[in-house]
């Protein structure tokens, strides 16, 4: 990136030269006599533009793969944050999705070395959605475990209400019974991978399944989309420049 001093451009604020007869370069302050470019709406000469291109981080395949790796790690941390907060506090707070979006977007830009762009933003959006939606799986499992514990405790504390006749019938086998004929075939147990895939699909669909409660579901979707928006903005990258051109120097004075 060009050094931010008296001799370097400040690309964050649009400024245009008002010199009669032509423009000057935002970076080197020299009059433009040949081709020029627009860098974030600033007029920059050709040599300074080439120097900027070499100093900016390059969007390479390795940078993108690092961004995906870091982003996946950020998504896992975001999932743990979202699910852990809900399980520990017992409070279902959708606003945690905003923190997850920032965390994933920051992880993506950290992995890329500051490079941003559409494909990085799309990756951050998908990872944020996956982190927030899949967090519903451990939340559901925890709630189901607590419910089973309550039911088991209730059964343990309640006295037996089985009638004596029923107990006698249960201990006296019928002479007409044919166990071999009445035995139902045992269904094959589902594989762990199949169960995991089903849980993943349910988790990914959970933001829309919650629309069964319209008010709660719509609010949850809005918060989720805001978190996704945060991830999109952060993943734009901190070292980026929109370069347009080249333009002919004869048009510089009229811009």
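^ structure tokens above, recovered residues below v
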């Amino acid at each position: 990136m060009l050094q931010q001093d008296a001799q370097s451009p400040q690309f964050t604020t649009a400024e245009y030269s008002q010199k009669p007869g032509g423009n000057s370069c935002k970076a080197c302050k020299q009059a433009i006599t040949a081709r020029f470019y627009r860098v974030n709406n600033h007029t920059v000469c050709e040599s300074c533009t080439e120097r900027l291109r070499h100093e900016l981080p390059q969007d390479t395949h390795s940078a993108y793969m690092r961004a995906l790796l870091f982003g996946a790690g950020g998504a896992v941390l975001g999932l743990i944050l979202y699910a852990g907060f809900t399980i520990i506090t017992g409070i279902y707070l959708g606003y945690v999705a905003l923190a997850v979006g920032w965390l994933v977007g920051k992880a993506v830009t950290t992995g890329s070395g500051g490079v941003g762009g559409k494909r990085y933003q799309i990756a951050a959006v998908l990872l944020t959605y996956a982190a927030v939606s899949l967090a519903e799986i451990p939340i559901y499992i925890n709630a189901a475990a607590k419910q089973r514990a309550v039911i088991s405790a209730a059964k343990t504390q309640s006295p037996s209400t089985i009638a004596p006749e029923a107990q006698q019938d249960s201990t006296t086998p019928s002479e007409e019974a044919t166990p071999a004929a009445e035995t139902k075939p045992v269904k094959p147990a589902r594989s762990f991978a199949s169960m995991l895939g089903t849980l993943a699909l349910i988790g990914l669909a959970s933001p829309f399944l919650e629309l069964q409660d319209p008010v709660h579901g719509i609010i949850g979707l809005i918060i989720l989309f805001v978190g996704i928006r945060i991830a999109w903005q952060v993943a734009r990258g901190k070292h980026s420049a929109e370069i347009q051109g080249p333009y002919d120097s004869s048009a510089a004075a009229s811009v």
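Confidence is low (pLDDT under 50) at residues 1-8, 12-21, 174-178.
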